[in-house]
Amino acid sequence: MLIDYLRNKSRTLIYTTALPPAVIGGLLAALRIIRDEPWRRERVLTKAAILRKALKEKGFNTLDSQSQIIPILIGPVQKTLEFSHRLYEENLLVSAIRPPTVPVNTARLRVTLMATVRDDDLEMALTKLVQVGRQLRII
C-alpha cells in the first residue's frame, strides 16, 4: 500500500524531468562550498597557472587556457591515445580528448586539477608529462 502510494504521488517518479532529491542535496552542498570556501577557487586557479606556465616553458601547447582544466594539444589521435596510456601506466590519469569532441587533428590531453593537489604532486605530474612527451617526440 505504501509503495503504491509513493509510485502514484512521488513527484520524482511521476515527472521524470525532476531531479532526484539526492542530486538536489548534492547541488545545494556544492553551492554552500562555493560560497563558504572561496580559497578553493583561488588555490586551484593558482596551481593551474603554475602548471600551465611550466608546461609552456617545456614546449607544450596549452591553447591559451585559463581555467583549472589545461588542454595539451597533441594533434594525431593515435599519438594522443598513446600519450594518455603511457601516463596511466605511470599512475597519472590524464584523459585523451579526440574527435568528434574536438576538430580533426586537434586531439589533446586534458589535465584537470583540484584545489587539494599538493606541490609535490604537481612536480611529479610535470616530470612525467615531460618524460613521456619527449619519448613520443611531442616536445
From TrEMBL:
SUPFAM superfamilies: PLP-dependent transferases (SSF53383). GO terms for molecular function: 8-amino-7-oxononanoate synthase activity; pyridoxal phosphate binding. Its cofactor is pyridoxal 5'-phosphate. GO terms for biological process: biotin biosynthetic process. The keyword Manganese does not apply. It holds the Pfam family Aminotran_1_2. Keywords: Membrane, Pyridoxal phosphate, Transferase, Transmembrane, Transmembrane helix. It comes from the Bacteria. The chain crosses the membrane at residues 12-34. Gene3D superfamilies: Aspartate Aminotransferase, domain 1 (3.90.1150.10), Type I PLP-dependent aspartate aminotransferase-like (Major domain) (3.40.640.10). Residues 2-129 form the Aminotransferase class I/classII large domain. Homodimer. This is Aminotransferase class I/classII large domain-containing protein. It comes from Desulforamulus profundi.
